[in-house]
Amino acid sequence: MATATSPASDTAFFGHPRGLSTLFFTEMWERFAYYGMRAILVLFMTATVATGGLGMDVGRAGAIYGTYVALVYMLGLPGGWVADRILGLRRSVFYGGILIMLGQLSLAVPGAKLFYLGLVLIILGTGLLKPNVSAIVGELYGKEDQRRDAGFSIFYMGINLGAFISPLIVGGLAQSPWFKGVLEGMGFNPATSWNWGFGVGAIGMLFGVIQYRLGWKHFGDAGIHPSVPPESEEGRSARRQLGRGIVGFLAVVAAIAVLVQQGMVSVETITDGFKWVYLALVVAFFIWLFAGNSWTKEERKRLIVIVVLFVGAAIFWSAFEQAATSLNLFALNNTRNSVFGLTFPSSWFQSVNALLIIIFAPIFAWIWLALGKHDPSSPAKFAFGLVSVGLGFVVMVAAAKASANGVLVSPWWLVATYLLHTIGELSLSPVGLSSMTRLAPDRVKGMMMGVWFLAASIGNLIAGGVLGFYARFTLPQVFGAVAGFAIVSGLVMFALVLPIKRMMARAD
Fold it and tell me: Residue 325, CB half-sphere, CA atoms under 13 Å: how many?
């Protein structure tokens, strides 16, 4: 793909390329829409119909949530493919933003009629936008540019600025008795407060799309053209494959909708089947990736490192993303939602991690630069991130024991957990993004960013599945299992640091 013109000389945005500011705000608004919805989605599905929810049991809500978020991140892979071969990075992000906005508008319609349509539109839109906006960030820097990790950390601040603001607004609208009273006073059904929350996400995404289109002139040459020339045979073949893929996807969605509507299959059956099919497809993809392409020796070494980091990231996200599932319900049912005399909606806990990211991201960015040659390697940062997220669940084991017999525990238990999770996230996530853009072969850069988000997809699928154990095991057992798995995985990653470093050095 083309690279931005003179990236080394562009320092217009706090020492970084000016295009980073446009991508900063694009991702901020997309994350505003996503994290606002994420903060209330499980709560909305499990709330009673009388209070405006869908009246689902916890297990079913968890299965739907896990499948939905898994697909959100899974579609990053074909989204990267579409960018590489058909649309280019720049237009892929633009069209993805429009689809996300339409999906949020669908969720804003009261009742369950457009609920699943909204989820599908957000899935498709995020698949186009998420991997490709990150790939454009990578293209603003040369591969040896020392600003790269710091640039991704700044970009990550934009993500978390949106993630911090949105639960406060969306959660406040959805759960606040004050806003329900406002709706009632205006003649609206107060039970529709959930839908008003989703509608704010649509407005945020509209702002994001507008500023992105106005600001993409600052990208230089980054993301203009697909890596495959449209007039080539490969380009024409890609368009034919995309057409067949769209038809097949719509056919599958329509068939599932009919089967569920007629009562021939349950949602639980579909989500359970999806898990196994999905895992099989992931394995098949990696087999194809290694066997079906004419990689050079250097490229194969890079791909091996990517696979190792992929596994570490998937394990990390399976623990971290409990924030929207088990930790979200713990905040609702087991936590005293008040501090310093102020009572607040339980969904506001979803802003804690983002606030901590905003505070600590610049510190971590400075640390990576200040360390220079002593900067820890990417696999070492991954290992530390896994151990840190595991320690967060050690805290939750203690909180769960304290909440026995219906006792509402202090909110500071969750704050302490989110602090440890934030430290882990800053050690792993921006570093992972940077590593993918550095290690990915040029001809599949967009696809490899999709692979990175595929790890988050698997992690979220597991996170949703944990809710299936929520009612069958005690909370200390559930949180203890998550803690143990994450910490042991981190220790294994520490043991692999030196072999991975040697492989990365040979690949470079």
Answer: 35
